[in-house]
Each structure stands twice: as C-alpha cells, then as structure tokens.
Specification:
The structure holds two protein chains of two kinds. Chain A is α/β, with parallel strands linked by helices. Chain A is 33% helix and 17% strand. Chain A has helices spanning 58-69, 83-91, 93-96, 125-147, 152-165, 169-175, 191-201, 219-223, 238-251, 262-265, 296-307, 311-325, 347-354, 370-377, 395-400, 428-437, and strands at 14-18, 25-30, 37-43, 72-73, 75-78, 100-101, 104-107, 207-209, 227-232, 274-275, 329-334, 337-341, 381-383, 405-409, 438-442, 448-450, 453-455, 472-475, 479-483. In chain A, the strands form four sheets. In chain A, strands 8-7-5-3-2-1-19-18 form an eight-stranded mixed β-sheet. A six-stranded mixed β-sheet of chain A has the order 9-11-12-13-14-15. Chain A has a two-stranded parallel ribbon with strand order 4-6. In chain B, strands 5, 8, 9, 10 and 11 form a five-stranded mixed β-sheet that branches. A five-stranded antiparallel β-sheet of chain B has the order 14-18-17-16-15, with helices on both faces. In chain B, strands 1-2 form a two-stranded antiparallel sheet. The radius of gyration of chain B is 25 Å and the shape is globular. The chains are: A alpha/beta, B alpha+beta.
Chain lengths: 484, 617
C-alpha cells in the first residue's frame, strides 16, 4: 500500500497511532502559527510471552514519521522505560540521530542527577533505584533463562523481564552466557541505548516531572494555545524504595552465585533420611482420606506441590508494576479538547491522582477527587493504558468517564496473559466497558502492509472504523488517525 | 498396676532460633501437654478438634523424610532430642512442641478448645465440607524459599528453607541452609494464622486495608508475648538490659576499652569493639525472627515489637500489611511497657532507697527475678486480653479501630474496675498512633466500649452451653437450630437488614473466671448476612462481589437460682455489629480496586493468600 497523504485539513489537531504490535507509538500534531507541530509520545514494542507481540513494523513506522514531521519534533514524551515504549529510539537510531527536538519530558524516576547537589553531578536516588531495578531484572532473567524450564509461567516471567531490560534472553540462553544490558537483541536496539540517546544524545536536558509539576511547554505550542497538566506519577517517596528491598529479599536466593540450579533442589539432609509414604502411619494422611480413600498421600503431595509459592512470578510481576507505575501521565488541552495519555499507569499511579494526590490519605476509602472526576467526565480522547491490560484502567475511572469520547488502544492480541487466567491483554471485559463509554479503536484490528507482505487484522475485527460522537477516525497505511 | 499417663511431655526447642546459639536460654526444655502420638508426630486422637499431624514431605525434591517417634525410649529418657540444625527428627519435634504449646496458650486465653477452619457453607456444600480442616497438617520442609505460610488449600502450614545470602548474613554462615521451621517466632506466627482462621469464618476476607495487617499484627503479638514465657531468656535479658526490657541493645559482657586514653578517643573508636565480648547483641525479646532477618541480608531481625514510633501519620500512609500491622503491634507493646513501668516503679524506689543507682548497669538477681515475675504476669494478661478481644469483634470487616473497642470491652467485661490501668494505657498508646475507635462519639471508656444489647431483646430460650470440653454432636445440632431460629425471628431487632437471610456460621461456649472467682459461662455467636452484587455495575463481566454484614452475639448463661434460669432463658449482653451499609460496600469496592482485584471474576479473590503477602512470613 502506498503511503497516503494525510487528509488532515489545515489547522486540525490530530492523534496518530502507528501499528507496531505490542507497544506504544503515538504522534500528536498541533496546528500552530508556524505550521503543524508534532509531539511524539513513546516509541517501542516488545515480543511478549508468545513472541507475537513484535510485528516488525517499528522501523518503517519511524521512517514514515520522520517523513511526516520532516525530522522535527516540538516535544518528545517518554512515559516510562519499558521496551514497549522506548526501544524504537535505539532500534531506529540512524533515523532519530538527525532529528531536531524542542524538548523531552520524562518521568521523575528518570532524574539522572540529584537536583539538590548543584556543584557536582551526583547520581540521584531515583537513578540508583532504577539501576538496581535493572540489575535485579537482569539477574533474574539470566537465572530463569539459563535454568531452561519450559512452561507458560516461565515464558510470562521472561517476557516481563525482557520488557524491563530490553535484553533478548534467547541469545544468551543458547550460548550459556549471562545477560548483558549492552548487547542488542533481535531487531536491534537496547533499552540502555534508548535511554542514553534520550538523556544525552539529543544535546538537550530532559525535564523530569511528577504529579502537579508545571511543565515547560515549548513556546511554539504554548503560543498555539496548548496546555498540559501532569497527573502522574506520584512523587518518589521512600515507600517504593522499601518495596524494592522486599522484592530483593524475596528473590535473593535466585540471585546468588550460579550454583547450577542446586538451590531449587537443595536437599539439606542427605539420602539416609529419605523415606517413602508407607513409612508413615496411616493416621498421618487421614486429613486427605475424605478426598481419596485409596491414596490420600497422593492428594496431599499434589496439594503441597500446588501450594509452592511462585516467588519468581510474583517478583517479575512486582518489577513490571513498579516500572508501569512510573508512567508520566499527561493531560493535554487544546481548543477546549481534553486528551489523556496515561502511559502504562496502573493502580497506584491512578489512585494517587484520582483520590486527591496526597500520601496522607489512606487509599481506597475516599471518594474520587472533584478535579479528577471533572477531568475524567469531560474527556475527548483517552489513550488506553497499558495496551488494554487488567488494572491499567481502574473500574472507578471507567465509571467516572463521560460517555462520548474516543479512545485508542495500541496492542497486539495474544502477546501476554491468557483468557483462562483472566489476564489476557487486552482484557476483553475492560474494552467492552470502555466501548460502552467511548468509540474505541484497536491497532491490531486493521491490517497493514509491510515490505510487500500483509500483517493481518486479528480474527473477528470490525471491517470499518467506528464513528465517534465528536471528530472522526481515519485509516492510513500503517496507522490510524483521530481528529478530535 | 497401670501407671497413669503424665500430664506433660518434656521436649526441647530453640527459644529463638539456631543463630542465637546456646546463650540466653536459647536451648530450652518445654513441658508440652501430653497427647498419645503416632510417628510424625501425629496426634492419635482423630476426633480432637485441635489435632495436628507433622508430615515431613518436601515438595521441591518430592520426597519424604523419616518421621520421628517421640515415644522412642532414647528420646523419652533424654527429655526430648537436643537442638540441632542437621537432625530432621529434631525439626519435627520442635514444630510439634511449639505448635502444641501455642494452641494451649490460646485455649487458656479463650476459655475453650479451639478447632481449625470450617469451610463457608454457601452454595456448594460438598466443596465447603472439603475445606474443613480436622487435623492441621504441618510440613516442616515443604519447599525451597524464604517464606512460610498457612495454606487452607493444603490443610496446613508449609515451612520453607533456603540458603542464606552470601553477604551481611550476621551470625549465619554465608550460604548455609536456613530453616524457617526452627524459628520459634515463625512457627508461632503461622500457627496463629491457622487458629484465627478457625475462630472466625470471614476474617480472611480483605475488605479494607486493616484486614491483612490485622492478621500479621495479631500473629506477631502472639509470637512476641510467647517470648516472655521463656524463663531463662527473660531473666538473662532482664539482667543485660539493667531492667529496661524495652531497650534495643543488650549490654555486652565487656565494657568498651582498649584505648590508652578513653577520654580523648574519637566517637568512632568508642563504638568500635575490639573483643567479641564488647559487641552488644540486639534484644531478642522484642524482636521477631532474628535469624531470618539476618540471613536475608537485613542486618537485623525481620520485625520488632517497637518498630514504629508514636505518630499519627503512619496509619494514613502505610498500606503494606506487615508495615501497617507493626503500628498495631507497637501500640499494644507501648501499653504493655507503660504498665510494666508503672507496676515496677515501687521496686525501683526500694532499690534506689537502698543505695541503688538511678540508672543501674547491674541489678541484683532478686530484683531481676521480681521484675521478671511482673513482666511475665503482665504479658500473660495482655496476651489473654488480645485473644479474648477476638470474641468481641464483629464477624466481618475488622479494622484497627474496632479492635480497640473490642479490647476495651473484653477487659471491662472481666475487670470492670480497671485496677491495673490497662484500658487507659491501651487507649493512650492507640491514640498516639492515630488508631481511633471506630464510630465512637467520645474517647471515654463507656463510649469506646461496645454498647450493651438493648434490653427489649427477647431472651434465647433453651440454649445448652455444654461443658468446658465443648459440646457433643447432638448438643451442637440443637444449639445451631435454636440460634438459627432466634436470629431469623429477631433479624431486625438485632440490627440486620430485612429481607436478607441471616446465617450462623459458628458459635462457641466460653468458660471464664470472673474477678470475684465465680465461673462465667458465655456463648459467642457469629451471625452473618451476605448479598451478592456486581463488582462493577458498569461491567458485569468482572464478576460478583460478596458484601457481608454481621454481628457477634454474646449470650450469658443465667446463674442458677435466677428466675431466668428456671425458665431456661439466656440474655444477650452484646450485639457487636457491622451493618450492611452503602459506605462499607463502597469501601470494599474501592479497596478491591486498590488491590487490583477489579479485573478478574474469581469468587475467592478477596481471601488473603498468605503465601503471596509481600515479604512472606
């Protein structure tokens, strides 16, 4: 399919969602006195548990965006450091290198140097925290990948860790080496390289924001009437650091020196102490005789095995949540239109601004803050959080949202989770609930053509774009546009 | 001539854990109540409601370890196997001894025998019956991991073991195996979870941020109060803290020295010990699970009795269950030490009058022993109060604020005069930590106490209270029918919502001694209403949520000779309730969302999963 010229009428506000697979790549175009100005919000993709997440289109999408913007961006917003939000910056480095960028906004968690130390450059607490988190993820990834276990949980753990580190574990698992954050994986690029590029490659000091900060909007956008409000993330208080300690404590045993897996199988007493079930009196198994008269011990053994705590899974999930909750949440207002970009914010991040945004308030018992309720009920556009996954858009937020806005969900079906565990992404009941409130478009529901071959739409996709109450959707070669 | 069975069985255990070595009375002998045992050990009487079975199955290596026979002559003659990390027989013996002892402490405090979990009888009755636990199974080496947890699905308690870290592991060897089943605190803590789950049917439903924090706090309190029953350890700590039991550090055996001129030594030098005898240990009495904490690189114990300082902000900020729970633990121990100081003030005055220093390093043994007596008696009193207060809690949706009201009510019920000043101390220490009595108008005793039941409530007729060993099957059936009929008939008088069925998931007769020495017989009855609603009315596919309201009825058996006794009428003294209200419903929804439970439709998702609680244990 040939690239169509955008049908944007001159002076129209536009939000473009590129289809990259499981990841976010949004371009917002604002009409200004100096012509259309562009804001890039994230650029990444991750293969996910099934390896189906990365459809291989991100480089083409970046090239398309470069042409569209003449390699000039008024603003780049990086919501958080997951692969599915940043890998594009290093994977398509040769294109990005020539970009002219007006400003970069990142989450407070990306603050590189301690702002209180004016004289010398001292690493900030947040940046040390991020380093530790990455090291933890990398350590876990190495251990899990080298252990070579094959099951659905392990795949999910590895996919979450890959998203956090940006490192392709299949490489080092095959060669038996440990992971390095520097080695590019399939398709090229690393999270580390992307972050380095964003923080220092553009000769531009990024701004790091937290809830309530007044963002410095580039002049050309400000003059055009664009305003922005930073809703998340919550400030970095020590609670999160405490959670990191817990996390390390929980999985510490998996991070020690490589013991060839003996920790998991550690038998502390030796063979002479081993016994069979029949060396126990029958009374030892009577609790399970209600379930099986013949072999109650087998029922018990199964119960113990099922109850083994899957600490690795919990750890990988906690790590994933940590990073998602660092998401920069931005509400743009332009010409009376309210546009919400929530990154991958989850429970803690949303809760913080929905319920008044002060840590002194015990969460979950208050009514939604008036200002937040007003924002949600007057939305014109919502970028669906975390590719439509569970908990990324809280139920109370959906309840509060008005009933006539448009939303876009950038995702790729069957990349993470499973319907059986009610963890499929995007989560179907959530999208159904959103669909009642808004006209929603999913990136994976429209086929694109990539160097001659087609990446099909997923099964059961609608054939036509919905018609929103306000504005309109339009379909392009590898993207979908919304004109509010 | 048959020799009668003894009352107790001598067994050995670590008072704290293997890392404490032989000092401080760590290797202790326990007089555990005598039970007939099979190898395991397994309590032979399968009908005992509080039976336990130690089954040493390792789920990681999928093999059993040989079971110990505590009736073996070699063990009997030794008074139990001596503590050893390398001997799994000892591990089995220790968990058996500590758990049995904990059960006994709870039964003494509650005034009745305990039983384990009963499945919730709603919907699928057979499935509910499968959830009943008759014999609590204990798995001392169930998995490899830094955790131990009570699992209703596995009908028991799973203890993990793991390799200690390689750095900063305190008194452990780097990389050594660490067994959670050898930590006295961890064993008591997990047993307490199982006991509370048996006492209350709906206490593990997380309906607000306090629920799981309460479970953690309560289990820590049980473990900490147990410390004060170890005589040797208590006496040693008393002497090494110069009578200041609440101090974090124990005085080292040797003074800091080794400098030519102490006065000109730098502060660092003064604090740098040269001999091991100069290193001060941490006070084990007020800490939880020292070995576990050190082995996981925390450089200190897992938690402490005085882990949070008095302030009213923590309660608003902390939501992680253990952190939040430590606020409650600190509040209780603050009150405990306040009374300990008050009660021992006279001893100190006598000591000083006799020429003793105002801030002594050493105290005479007789003084130390008298102080220990007070500390021990008071800890017993506090433990009993905390446990009895459970009977005065509404059956659902516990909060710290309502637990405070239950403590005050439970204490008032037995000691109306408050001679010792417990209620005052508890009120103050809770207030300092921002724990306010829920829905009470004032901070006075009588407004914090749960109100007495209205006088126009009709009496319960024909209720049989059984005897201290419990009710027979027939008595249980009869009582269940009477109570069920009563709550159904008097539904609205009891404050329940009309039109929603009320069920009675449990009732317990309780036998206690009044302060005047007379016997008081009560029946504690749980009555619960449940309604099912869409978790999210806008998205019904996210499943249903169960909202429960409930009341605990405390019914007194009339004294013989009273007119009501002749008519076999028992009065209800308290109706402690949490009503079905839109506010509670909304709070539960919001909290479910906070926990991230809004995206699934699993019916049991509100139940605490003890294995996944952050940080374990």
């Amino acid at each position: 399919m040939a690239t169509k010229k955008s049908k944007a009428k001159k002076g129209e506000l536009r939000i473009r969602m590129y289809r990259v697979g499981f990841g976010d790549f949004f371009l917002m175009t604002v009409p200004t006195a100096e012509g259309p100005q562009h804001i890039l919000i994230d650029c990444g993709v991750t293969p996910g548990k099934t390896k189906k997440g990365d459809i291989g289109s991100i480089k083409a999408a970046v090239a398309h965006m470069a042409q569209e913007t003449s390699k000039t961006l008024a603003l780049i917003i990086v919501t958080h450091r997951h692969q599915d939000h940043i890998i594009g910056f290093s994977r398509a480095a040769e294109i990005f290198n020539d970009f002219k960028v007006g400003a970069i906004w990142m989450s407070i968690w990306e603050t590189e140097y301690d702002p209180n130390e004016k004289k010398e450059k001292k690493k900030s607490l947040a940046s040390e925290f991020q380093d530790e988190l990455t090291a933890l993820a990398l350590g876990l990834q190495s251990r899990v990948a080298l252990a070579g276990k094959k099951d659905s949980d392990t795949d999910e753990i590895l996919a979450m860790l890959q998203n956090a580190t940006g490192v392709d574990h299949e490489d080092f698992a095959a060669t038996g080496t440990t992971a390095s954050a520097k080695k590019p994986g399939k398709g090229g690029g690393t999270n580390a390289a992307s972050l380095a590029f964003l923080k220092s490659g553009l000769k531009l000091e990024p701004e790091y924001y937290t809830r309530g900060d007044k963002p410095k909007i580039p002049k050309v956008l400000k003059d055009a009437g664009l305003t922005a409000q930073i809703l998340g993330p919550p400030p970095t208080d020590e609670i999160d650091f405490m959670k990191l300690m817990d996390l390390k404590k929980g999985v510490g045993q998996y991070l020690g020196e490589d013991d060839g897996g003996i920790t998991e199988m550690l038998d502390p007493f030796g063979a002479s102490w081993q016994a069979n079930a029949n060396e126990y009196p029958l009374s030892a198994f009577r609790e399970f005789s209600r379930e099986s008269k013949e072999s109650p011990n087998a029922v018990m053994e199964a119960a113990i095995q099922a109850a083994q705590p899957s600490q690795l899974f919990t750890a990988a999930k906690t790590l994933d949540d940590f990073l998602n909750n660092q998401s920069l949440v931005v509400l743009f207002t332009f010409g009376g239109k309210k546009l919400l970009f929530a990154g991958d914010a989850q429970g803690g991040n949303w809760e913080y601004w929905m319920y008044g945004g002060t840590p002194e308030k015990a969460p979950s018992v208050d009514q939604i803050d008036k200002d937040s309720a007003s924002i949600l009920s007057h939305l014109d556009f919502y970028k669906v959080g975390h590719h439509g996954s569970t908990n990324a858009t809280p139920v109370s937020a959906v309840e509060t949202m008005g009933g006539d806005f448009a939303s876009m969900c950038s995702t790729q079906e069957d990349s993470f989770g499973s319907e059986k565990n009610q963890s499929e992404v995007p989560r179907i009941p959530l999208l159904e609930a959103l669909a009642k409130k808004s006209k929603i478009v999913r990136s994976d529901q429209f086929a694109i053509t990539l160097s001659g071959s087609e990446v099909p739409a997923i099964k059961g996709s609608p054939t036509r774009l919905p018609t929103p109450d306000r504005g309109r959707f339009e379909r392009g070669s590898i993207y979908i546009d919304y004109f509010p | 001539m048959k020799i009668e069975n003894p009352v107790t069985r001598p067994l050995k255990a670590y008072a704290f854990d293997p890392s404490a070595g032989r000092l401080l009375g760590n290797e202790m002998s326990m007089a555990v109540r005598f039970q007939e045992l099979d190898p395991g050990p397994v309590v032979r009487d399968r009908w005992a409601p509080n039976a336990i079975a130690i089954v040493d199955y390792n789920g990681a290596t999928k093999q059993y370890y040989k079971p110990v026979d505590l009736d073996d002559r070699g063990i009997l003659l030794r008074g139990g196997l001596s503590p050893s990390e390398a001997d799994p027989y000892f591990h089995q013996q220790m968990v058996y001894a500590v758990i049995t002892n904990t059960i006994q402490h709870f039964e003494e405090a509650l005034g009745r025998r305990i039983h384990w979990r009963r499945g919730v009888r709603e919907g699928d009755l057979e499935a509910a019956a499968r959830e009943d636990i008759y014999t609590l199974n204990i798995y001392p080496h169930a998995f490899v991991g830094r955790n131990a947890f009570y699992s209703p699905r596995a009908h028991g308690i799973l203890f993990g073991y793991f390799r200690a870290g390689t750095k900063d592991v305190g008194r452990n060897l780097p990389g050594q195996p660490v067994f959670t089943c050898l930590s006295h605190d961890v064993v008591v803590h997990e047993t307490t979870h199982a006991i509370v789950d048996g006492i209350r049917s709906f206490f593990t439903e997380q309906t607000n941020p306090d629920v799981s924090a309460f479970h953690e706090a309560f289990a820590d309190l049980a473990a900490l109060f147990q410390h004060f029953t170890y005589e040797e350890a208590l006496l040693d700590t008393m002497e090494r803290t110069g009578g200041k039991l609440y101090q974090y550090q124990l005085r080292p055996d040797a003074e800091m020295a080794g400098y030519d001129d102490y006065a000109s030594a730098t502060p660092e030098q003064k604090h740098d010990p040269l001999l091991s005898a100069q290193i001060s240990a941490r006070n084990p009495l007020i800490e939880i699970a020292q070995q576990f904490g050190e082995a996981t690189g925390k450089n200190r114990a897992l938690r402490s009795a005085l882990g949070t300082k008095p302030n009213s902000l923590d309660i608003l900020k902390l939501t992680e269950p253990h952190a939040r729970g430590s606020i409650l633990v600190a509040a209780v121990f603050d009150a405990y030490f306040a009374i300990y100081l008050k009660r021992t003030a006279d001893l100190w005055r006598i000591f000083r009058a006799g020429g003793g220093s105002a801030n002594p390093v050493d105290i005479p043994r007789p003084l130390a022993m008298r102080l220990c007596d007070e500390a021990r008696a008071l800890s017993r009193l506090f433990f009993r109060l905390c446990v009895r207060a459970l009977d005065y809690c509404a059956p659902v949706d516990i909060t710290f604020g309502s637990y405070l009201r239950s403590i005050v009510t439970a204490d008032f019920d037995l000691h109306p005069e408050d001679e010792i000043g417990i209620r005052e101390a508890v009120k103050q220490s809770f207030r300092l930590r921002g724990i306010m009595p829920e829905n009470a108008g004032f901070f006075s005793d009588d407004s914090i106490r749960w109100p007495r039941a209205p006088e126009d409530l009709p009496p319960v007729v024909g209720l049989n209270f059984g005897d201290p060993n419990g009710l027979t099957m027939a008595q249980k059936k009869e009582a269940a029918a009477i109570l069920q009929a009563y709550v159904t008939t008097n539904c609205e008088l009891l404050g329940f919502s009309a039109g929603v069925p009320v069920v009675v998931p449990s009732f317990h007769p309780v036998f206690r001694i009044n302060s005047d020495g007379s016997l008081r017989i009560d029946m504690v009855v749980e009555a619960v209403q449940t309604i099912e609603k869409d978790f999210n009315p806008a998205a019904p596919k996210f499943g249903k949520i169960k909202f429960r309201g409930g009341a605990t009825l405390i019914i007194s058996k009339p004294m013989p000779g009273e007119p009501s006794a002749l008519k076999n009428e028992s009065q209800i003294r308290y109706v402690i309730s949490k009503k079905l209200s839109p506010q509670r419903e909304e709070r539960q929804r919001r909290f479910g969302e906070h926990l991230g439970l809004d995206g699934t439709s699993d019916q049991n998702r509100f139940e605490i999963n003890f294995s996944m609680l952050h940080g374990g244990i």
